[in-house]
Amino acid sequence: MEKILIIKLVISILYGIAAGLLTIPLSKKLTLSRTDDPSVAAVIEKPLTVAVVVLISLASSIAISLTVDETGLMIRNLVLLFPMLSIMVVDMVVRKIPNPLLLTMIITELAYILYYCISEKTADIIPKVIIGIAVGLLLTWIPGLLKIPIGNGDIKYCAVIGACVYIMGFAQAMVTMSLLVGIVYIVLKITKKGDMKTMLPMGPFLSVGTIITMCIPIADANFGNLI
């Protein structure tokens, strides 16, 4: 048991560092294809940005490996981590969520669904995915009704997250995202660098909220098979 834990830890460290480093060139390429100003992407290669991305990737990889027991689910979560990291970076820089990254997440989830259905000999995961997508789309209509601007990329990202962590996981990710946004607004207010009217990209906060949900599924613990 201890040997398996050490192996998982080593693999997660190597994967976390590799995913973080590979996120930088991928994010730069995706950013440059979405802006007419090449200088905008320069911030991605700054040492501080690289260090932060690698640190987040490393911490997330270790957390996923140590908190997810089922091997198939752990692998799925680690694979999903890579596009989510890039979404964090690209959305932070140009306020856009690249479709290729969302497609990567969808393909990963489809592969996991197939694996789950075969290994568990049941298709009970499919309704969860469909309901997760529906809830993800439905909740993004609410800001529109309140005349709060939300981009098409954010809408699609919510639907994909709903498909990956299902209805209760999505709810937890959204609550976590809201708490993180609230903390940032408080910091902006204290430092006098912004206020509640300051527009923040949704992608980075939802990504972090989803990663935390994958590692600590409070909703799963409380509601069992609902997610």
What brief labels describe this structure?
about 230 residues; mainly alpha; 8 helices; disordered C terminus
Q: Which class best fits the helix and strand makeup?
A: mainly alpha
What share of residues are in beta strands?
under 5%
Number of helices: 8
Rg over C-alpha atoms, rounded to the nearest angstrom? 18 Å
Q: Approximately how much helix is present in the residues?
A: over 70%
**How many runs of DSSP E, i.e. beta strands?**
0
Residue-averaged pLDDT, rounded? 88
- End-to-end separation: 29 Å
Shape: globular
Concise summary:
With 227 residues, this protein is mostly helical. Helix content is 79%, strand content 0%.
Topology:
Layout: H1 2-32, H2 47-67, H3 71-94, H4 99-120, H5 125-145, H6 152-191, H7 202-215, H8 218-223
Helix pairs in contact: 1-2, 1-3, 2-3, 2-7, 3-4, 3-7, 4-6, 5-6, 6-7
